[in-house]
Amino acid sequence: MRLIAEDLGGERGGEAVFSGIGFALDPGQALLVTGPNGSGKSTLLRIIAGLLPKAEGRLLLENGGDDFPSVASACHYLGHQNAMKTALSVAENLRFWRDFNGRGDSGVEEALETVGLGGIGHLPFGYLSTGQRRRAAIAKLLVSHRPLWLLDEPTAGLDKASEARFAGLMTKHCVAGGMIVAATHLPLGIEAAELRMGEATERLLQQGTPS
Amino acid sequence: MWSLFARDIRLNIRAGGGALTGVIFFLAVIATIPFGVGPDLKLLSRIGPAILWIGALLSCLLGLDRLFQADREDGSLDLLVLGNDRHMLALTVLVKCLAHWAGSVLPLVVAAPLLGLFMNMEPLGIGATALTLLVGTPAITFIGAAGAAVAVALPRGGLLISVLVLPLTIPVLIFGVSASYGATADPDPFLQPFLILAALTLFLGVLGPASAALALRHGTD
C-alpha cells in the first residue's frame, strides 16, 4: 500500500491556500505537516480524506486491495472535533464507531485501557475533561482498523504523560505497517518526515492573489 | 447500520434529544383549535382530519434541523461521509431518517387518535387518519432530510428548512387528508388516495436520502 500525492493544490472560498504539494508514503512511514496558522494544514488533511475537493493535482492509494479501494476507506480522520456524542457514555460512543467502521484489533474496554481511561467507560462523554475527551477520541482509532491515520492537531489538550502514550501508539501503528499524516505545531515524538506548508503559501502571496 | 439506528434512537430519548417536543407542539396546536373554532361539534368533526394532518405536518418539521446539524457540530458527520465506501451515504441518511421518524414522528402518530377525540371525530375517521399519518409521515421526513442537508451549515437553519420543505410536502398533505376523508364521507374513495400516498412515501424514500446524500457530500467544508 502506498499513498501518493502529486502537485496537490487546495483552496478555501475560491482562494488558493497552497499548491504544488507532493509526497509519497509507504507502510510504516509517518508525515508531519507543519507550518504557521492558515498555511493549509487542516485543508490538506481534509483534501486527503476526500472531505474537500482538491483544486489541482493527483491523490491516490496504490495497492489498497479490496478492503481499501480508496483513500477515504483506508483512513481514520481525527479532526478538531472528537465526533463523540455528549449524551452517550464513552463506551457507547466507542461501541457505535466500532460497529459502524468495522471491528479492529482491540475491544472497547481494551482501547480505553490503552489510552489510560480504563474504568470510566460508563460515564457520559459530556462529563469528561478536554484532555480525556481527546483520549477517548484517540481510543476510537484503535477500536476499528484503518491503515492510514489522518490526525489534525491530535495532541491538543493532552498532558505530557498522554502525549508520550500517544507517541507510543503511533509508533506501534507505524511498526505494524500503518501510515500517519499528522498536522501539528508540537513535536509528536515519533520518527517522521516533515512537510512544511508555509513556503508554498508565501510564494502564492508574493505572486499576488486575485482580489 | 443497526448501530446507527440504535444510536440515533438513544440520542433522541436521552436528555436534550427532544423526542417529546413534537408531541407537545402537536398537542398544543390541536388543543387550541376547538377554542378558536368554537363549540360547533359538527364543524370540528368535519375539519378534524385536516387539522390533525396539518398539526402533524408542522410538528414533523419542528425537529428536522437537528437531523444532521448535531452530527456536524461534533464532527460525526465527517466520519459518516467518510464511511461512504462501506455504507453508501444515501443508505446512512435513510437509516438516520428512519431513526428520526421512529423517535420523533411515530409518537405523533400514536398521539393522533387521542387528539382526534378533541376534534369530536368518529372512531372510523380517527382510525383512517392515524393510518394515513402512519403511511404518509415518513415521506415528510424524507423530504425534510433533503432540506436539512442543504441547510446543514447554517446556524439558524430551522426556519429555512421549514420554508424549503413545506411546499414539497403539499402533495403528501393533499392525499393524506383526502384518504382520511374518503374513509368517512361516502362517495369519496379511500383506497386510491391512500395508495398514491403510499407511493409518494416509497418514491421519496429513494429520492430524499439520495439528494440529501448529494448535498452532504458537497456541503462539507
TrEMBL record, chain B:
Belongs to the CcmB/CycW/HelB family. The chain crosses the membrane at residues 12-35, 47-68, 89-118, 124-152, 159-182, 194-216. Pfam families: CcmB. Required for the export of heme to the periplasm for the biogenesis of c-type cytochromes. It is found in: Cell inner membrane. It is a multi-pass membrane protein. NCBIfam families: ccmB. The keyword Cell inner membrane applies. Its main location: membrane. Keywords: Cell inner membrane, Cell membrane, Cytochrome c-type biogenesis, Membrane, Transmembrane, Transmembrane helix, Transport. This is Heme exporter protein B.
